[in-house]
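HUMAN: Would you supply a protein with fold tokens?

ASSISTANT:
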Amino acid sequence: MNTLKHIGALVYKDVLIELRSREVIWSMVVFAITVLVIFNFIFDPGTDIMQKTAPGILWVAIIFSSNLGLNRTFVKEQEAGNMQGILLTPMDRSAIFLSKMLANVIFISAVQVIMLPVMIVLYDLPVTGTFGLLLLVLFLGILGFASVGTLFSAIAANTKSREIMLPILLLPVTVPVILGAIKSTQYLLSAEPLSKVYPWMRLLIGFDVIFFVVCYLLYEYVIEE
């Protein structure tokens, strides 16, 4: 119960700070919308090639805008001198990981809520009947990406070139999650049978579970370093 209180308090702190500063979310939103607009000028909306490339464009916008937020996960704590204080509190180290991961999921999901309607309108995407599954796929992709990103953010925060180090560490490891998310999204937007979607969703769920458990177990050793 105490662990849940600690997680809730840390998540509340991060969300409250972001609501006051709006530093991370707005930079992520601007980056994501910029990516969507640029690609919108390249392809004609509603064409077959747009339908095929839209899932990739969507996840490119999510992944690279998410890197902006993940980079700030632990850096802002170190800049404010809060990290040592958090580590000295009598709480399980896993509570820090879970709170940071949940905060990242919230921030990335908030960007997605703004970005997805813009993309549907700009790209004329057919989402009728599959919108619920599409949201589930987006959530699963974000969950896996945020799990690994939170761990690697803790590692990169202690390096001088953290803005470069995080994507170098993060992107190769999360390829299975990215692949599963893109293929699931592609089949949903193409109105393919659900029998083609479910294997990729199972792959996505499987890697989400693996990455979450591994990152959860490794975080205590990473943060002590």
